[in-house]
Amino acid sequence: MSIITSAEAFLIDIPVETVRTDSVQAFLKQETPFVRIKTDDGLEGVGYSYTIGTGGTAVLAMLRDYLVPKLIGMDSRNVEKVWNEIYYSTRATETGAISSLAMAAIDTAIWDLKCKRANQSLAVVAGGFRDRVPLYDTEGGWLHLTTEELVAGAKASQAKGWPGVKLKVGKPNVHEDVERLVAVRAEVGNKMHIMVDANTSFTVAEAKRRAQAFEPIDLFWFEEPLPADDVTGHAALAKSTSIPVAVGETMYSAMQFQQYLHQEAVGIVQVDVARVGGITPWLKVAHMAEAFNVKVCPHFLMEIHVSLTAAIPNGLYVEHIPQLRGITHTQMKIENGHAIAPTTPGLGIDWNFDAIEGLRIS
Ligand code: MG
């Protein structure tokens, strides 16, 4: 037995490490709800979730007022039971962003406990397929950057040996997007992967037009061309272009991915461990994608996604956007263009609790 004897939720605000913009939004701050769980066998699990600037206090209220109190007395070893009982206790508020973001903070704490109990790393406990994953950089590709800055960012990534870069698209005129992408391709050559991301900003017709214009640039994927609810639109787009369509960061349940995969509306699955509700559903999505012969390149949260991507056979890339350097003692290791999965027992994130306490807002 590993009975939960105490659990608490709190919220911190982490300032952004750099200005980040895309076609629909800016990353304002990382609101980060934490959950700490203690068990009667002397373990402590720490889990977390995030928003990019709005909704954090709603997630905290969901945790404090409804979900966290239900954990007391449960056996933390029963990962599926905890997830299902806690999540479906919210019936009237599932499926949705607030519930899933709240569940992720709980479920990642439960997995932290599971790994610590096994004295193994998350990468091993979650599957154990490899110890490192290729890295692509998003940090040099934001929409407000000039073409010269995009080129400089891509060249810097290439100089470090990173195999891919992602550039935001969605300028008012298609020719502006094309000009920026052509400039980067011309500088980095044909071997580097270039991904683009429209952050859900296009209609189907406009996405088809942009994809056609992007075809000669040899893109690795076209991310979030349309609103995430539009599964049929993504399917139509995917049929019209040779560029793989990547989606997942704006999806909040495993079954949403099932619909995309079933309709051949997605070529790269970008499941986000916080937004989908934790590691438990994340792994279901990843394995489901494997059964459809689709690769997984999770969105953001590189510090935990490095372990999960290393755990699965169909993991392809980890996204480089560092955001936890201010609240951790050590950083994710990068070697020769690869992110190295931590080997320490637990989630493998070296939290600095003094720094976390200093950023606490509730
Ligand atoms: Mg994106």
Short description:
This protein is of the alpha/beta class and 362 residues long. It has 2 domains: 4-119 and 352-358, Enolase-like, N-terminal domain (Enolase-like, domain 1, 2-Layer Sandwich); 124-340, Enolase-like C-terminal domain (TIM Barrel, Alpha-Beta Barrel), CATH 3.20.20.
Features of the shown structure:
362 residues, binds magnesium ion, 10-stranded mixed sheet, 12 helices, Enolase-like, domain 1, globular, 13 strands, single chain, 37% helix, TIM Barrel, 3-stranded antiparallel sheet, alpha/beta
Helix content: 25-40%
Coarse shape: globular
Order of helices and strands: EEEHHHHEHEHEHEHEHEHEHEEEH
Average per-residue pLDDT, rounded, comes to: 97
Please give the structural blueprint.
Blueprint: E1 4-15, E2 29-39, E3 44-48, H1 56-67, H2 79-87, H3 97-118, H4 122-125, E4 132-137, H5 147-159, E5 164-168, H6 174-188, E6 193-197, H7 204-214, E7 221-223, H8 231-240, E8 245-247, H9 254-262, E9 268-269, H10 279-291, E10 295-296, H11 302-311, E11 318-320, E12 333-335, E13 338-340, H12 353-358
Parallel strand pairs: 4-5, 4-11, 5-6, 6-7, 7-8, 8-9, 9-10
Antiparallel strand pairs: 1-2, 2-3, 4-13, 12-13
Helix pairs in contact: 1-3, 2-3, 5-6, 6-7, 7-8, 9-10
The structure holds magnesium ion.
